[in-house]
Amino acid sequence: MSLSFRLDGVRLGYGHGAVLDGIDLDVAPGELLAVVGSSGSGKSTLLRALAGLLQPYQGKILADGEEVRGTSPDRAMIFQEDGLLPWRTVRRNVELPLRIRRKPLDVSAWIERVGLAGREDRLPRELSGGQRQRVQLARALVGGPRAVLMDEPFGALDAQTRADMQRLLLDVLRDTAATVVFVTHDVDEALLLGDRVAVLGRGGIKTVLTSATRERILEEL
Ligand SMILES: Nc1ncnc2c1ncn2[C@@H]1O[C@H](COP(=O)(O)OP(=O)(O)OP(=O)(O)O)[C@@H](O)[C@H]1O
Q1: Which residues of 52-82 are buried (b: 16+ CB within 10 A; e: fewer)?
Q2: How many domains does the chain have?
Q3: pTM of the shown model
C-alpha cells in the first residue's frame, strides 16, 4: 500500500540554473522522512518534484519504480497555509479527493478523528490556524493516499498548537500505511517525527541521518 520513492541524479530548478543538483535519495515504503534545511535550500522544491508539480531537468524521480510525470491522488500534499478552498466548508474541503475519485463522500469519521466534529459547516476563515491544518490533514488522508508530502504544515502555528498537531499526526499515521516526506526548518520537529532526517544545503542533500541527534543535524546545517 505505501509508496517508495527513488531519486536518481536529479537536477531541479526554475529556468535560471539549478536549485538542487545530483540528488540521489531512496524513501522506503511506510517511512517518515523529515527534510530540514535553511531557508532557500530547496526543501519545497524537492517536495514539489515528488508531488509531480515540477519536472527535473535531469535524472529520474520514481514512485514505486514508475516515473513521476504529474500529480496523483496517490500522493497527497499538505501546505503551510492557504491549502484549503476558502469558499468551501470543512466538510466540502475534506470531500474533495473523494469527489475527484468518484468515491462515496464518507468523511465524518476523518473529521471526527482530527477533532473537528461539530465544525463541519464552517468556512476556513471561521477556523483557527490549527483547525485549518486539521482540515488539511483529514483531506490528505481521507482518500487513503499511499504517500503524504507535507510542506512545513505546522510552521505558522504557536508552540502549543504545533505540539498538539505533531501528536495528532503521529497518532493518525499509525492508522495509515502512507509514506511521509515532511519538510520543516525546525530541527526538533524533524527529530520528533522523522524515522530518518535528510539535511539539505549547498544545492544538494548534505546527508541523510538514520539515527539523528540534534548536534549532528546542527553540524550539517
Ligand atoms: N516558483 C519559483 N520560481 C523561481 N524560483 C523559485 C520558485 N520557487 C522557489 N524558487 C527559488 O528556489 C530556491 C529554493 O526555494 P524553496 O522554496 O525550495 O526553498 P525552501 O528551502 O523551501 O525555503 P523556505 O524554508 O524559505 O520555504 C530559492 O532560491 C527560491 O528563490
Answers
A1: bebebeebebebeeeebeeebeebbbbbbee
A2: 1
A3: 0.94
